[in-house]
């Protein structure tokens, strides 16, 4: 289902992947610095989640300014929260690369607001860009360290923007419940020599879904 989400004097293009049965939870997904909501990894994940009963909303926000991207993501969260078509008790935010930075930034901002009402259940970071290539001294970890909701990182062990040891160090300092799933030998774009994109995406999709399910079940206990 294609929708246009009002954003200032513009609109954000977005697509709902709707499960056959009414879903209780949703996931909002966005892309990295390049690409858009039709980036194959996002389409693959959204389709997989919808086929397993989780509503997915993926959107496009061009622009390389992180504050702008965060604002757009926040607008989409509000849109879904107020949606009459899909009344959801909670949502998980997910992003690829820069999109995961924007998602983390939204969660940090919303948790600082007084009206934080548990609508956001967790965060999925695919290829989180912890640092620029070859610039390991400047870590983008401030949002991560202030988050309290569950966080899943899916990163390639050969990601040039997220050195394994550095991410493990940041994660050990995080107060939130967290997990890292390493895709062996994958780079920042999740390419692995000797494996097809579909094969890698199957691993990512299944892992994201099982983590979501775990966290939804924990919530219901």
From TrEMBL:
It comes from the Eukaryota. Pfam families: Abhydrolase_11 (PF20408). This is Testis-expressed sequence 30 protein. Residues 27-208 form the KANL3/Tex30 alpha/beta hydrolase-like domain.
């Amino acid at each position: 289902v294609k929708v246009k989400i009002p954003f200032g004097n513009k609109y954000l293009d977005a697509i709902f992947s709707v499960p056959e049965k009414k879903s209780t939870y949703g996931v909002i997904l966005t892309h990295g610095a390049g690409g858009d909501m039709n980036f194959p990894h996002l389409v693959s994940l959204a389709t997989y989640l919808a086929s397993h009963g989780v509503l997915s909303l993926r959107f496009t926000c061009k622009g390389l300014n992180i504050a702008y991207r965060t604002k757009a993501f926040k607008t989409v969260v509000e849109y879904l929260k107020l949606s009459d078509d899909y009344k959801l008790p909670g949502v998980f935010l997910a992003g690829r690369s820069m999109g995961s930075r924007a998602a983390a930034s939204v969660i940090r901002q919303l948790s600082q607001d007084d009206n934080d009402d548990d609508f956001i259940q967790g965060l999925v970071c695919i290829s989180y860009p912890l640092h620029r290539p070859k610039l390991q001294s400047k870590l983008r970890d401030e949002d991560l360290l202030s988050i309290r909701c569950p966080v899943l990182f899916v990163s390639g062990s050969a990601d040039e923007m997220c050195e394994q040891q550095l991410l493990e160090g940041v994660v050990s300092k995080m107060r939130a419940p967290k997990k890292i799933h390493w895709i062996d030998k994958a780079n920042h774009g999740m390419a692995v020599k000797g494996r097809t994109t579909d094969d890698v995406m199957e691993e990512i999709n299944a892992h994201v879904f099982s983590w979501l399910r775990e966290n939804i079940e924990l919530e219901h206990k």
